[in-house]
Please model this.
Amino acid sequence: MTDLRGRVALVTGGAAGIGRLLALELARRGAIPVVWDLDAERVEAAVDALRPLAGGRTRGYVCDVTDAGAVAATAALVQQEVGDPDVVVNNAGVVSGKLLVDLDEASIRHTFEVNTLALYWVTKAFLPAMVAANRGHVVTIASAAGLLGVARQTDYSGSKHAAVGFDESLRVELHRTAPGIVTTVVCPYYIDTGMFAGVRTRIPALLPILQPEDVARRTADAIARDRRVVVLPPIIRLLPVLRVLPPLVFDRVMDLFGVNTSMDEFVGHVGAAAPTKGGGAGSA
Model:
């Protein structure tokens, strides 16, 4: 078990969406939340919301998680002002929702910078202190799209596959070098945060659009219980079994479930600008 009481828990993309809800949930469980986001106004609002729950022991920082130098500098500030985080949640994420032929180079690079490369910069900034103490918890908010390719998600799914691989490699690496550090990867289906506005599910009883509060609660439970892998909803755990099917048959099964048409009406954030670097994440 990871006792969250009095533990410093840093959440990237923590000023909106799942990140904000998770920071609030961790604060309710006694953690000291530290939020990172690119939007200064959202950071201030998040800290104001967290302060009553955390007894005033909360901080917020503006940080572009795609900038390795900015991450290192902000991490040093956190360590100086708050202390070494006991829990680091890599949550920041973006999605484009376009066909590969419609994606420009800048969009593809941006997706991988936020969803994949930021995992390395943030984790590397805090991991040495965890290794020295042989204690800590690194959480990667990946996606069910990190376990399954989905139409109109060549960049997003590719970046989340990389996130799943990052967590798995880090887990086995730390088992040898610092076994007291726990890693958790979270792979949810679509979350109703607005990040995936317009997505549809053909069989909601089996593949529901997840409620963000429930995902935040389940993620906090996983951190507290040292669970290594969280997959939501449970039916997605059948994917390894279905993988024994020939690729074309597997694709037809996914078509039957409506997975590859789920993004057909995707519009993304409604009435707001597209997610910025370091912004809050929703997953699919």
Summary: The domain at 8-261 is CATH 3.40.50.720 (Rossmann fold). Strands lie at 8-12, 32-37, 59-62, 87-90, 136-141, 181-188, 229-232. Residues 105-133 form the longest helix (29 residues).
